């Protein structure tokens, strides 16, 4: 697959326009290759994971976390230098889908909402929205047209009408999409711009939704235990007697806790809760760990990409939670 087509596929699921302003989503280290065959996917672009990617012959590395949030000098033989050196030496492109992935509630970040069967889900902190467009080629064009063009334009044949092409404005502008479409159709095929879809796709951080039915605190804890693979959690704030509205944010999302509670959340699930956040919270926060929420998200992201690009060898590199529980015997 062409490198840019795969990046378009990533950004269809993790649109860069939805990323937070402070973030560094996108290409971290470029490569000279234009065609890719093997992709490594991991939560972190750690030195150990990059070595694994090299050993499996990957020419593309997709990580959730950026290699760095701001440019750093390659001034010492540290882990950062060795990681960049490995990537450049082995001609591996490193791409980070960070808050761009977090901001698409319909993507892999929605795995916990799916697992808990949350309904009427909404984002807690909107970052962007897009409008869907359609282009119709009304003639019955001959030949086979790909189901996806340029990584983000979806195509389907409608009997008796022709071909319908659909795309979102955060992925590609209309004029560019039309140019790509003309390249796969017979010369002279006319294009009709259909009306924009009424529904907008909202992008944003954090998800809030309702359980199918109200549960007791104990019942909810048992449900969450089945979804989140971790042997311990921490909680802070008042424990509710019952739970119906659940909100969560993957990674370090405790800054959204009060927003969640203001919107009626009974509990807020996240990782990396700090002392003063725990001290001041007005609702119940469950810290299940930064790693547990995002490791599963990236595992599902890898599977989603593999399903959409069967000709690529896409491998998920599992990691271990760097935070461990140490029992103290007094």
UniProtKB/TrEMBL annotation:
Under what name is this protein listed?
Answer: GTP cyclohydrolase 1 type 2 homolog
Quaternary structure (record): Homohexamer.
**Pfam families referenced in this protein's UniProt entry, alphabetically:** DUF34_NIF3
Tell me the keywords, alphabetical order.
Metal-binding
Single GO molecular function: metal ion binding
Write down the NCBIfam families for this protein, in alphabetical order.
YbgI_SA1388
Protein residues bound to a divalent metal cation 1: 65, 102, 290, 294
Give the InterPro entries listed for this entry: DUF34/NIF3, DUF34/NIF3_bac, DUF34/NIF3_sf
| Gene Ontology annotations for the cellular component aspect, listed alphabetically | cytoplasm
Q: Where, by residue number, does a divalent metal cation 2 bind?
A: 64
Taxonomically, which superkingdom? Answer: Bacteria
Q: Name the family the entry cites.
A: Belongs to the GTP cyclohydrolase I type 2/NIF3 family.
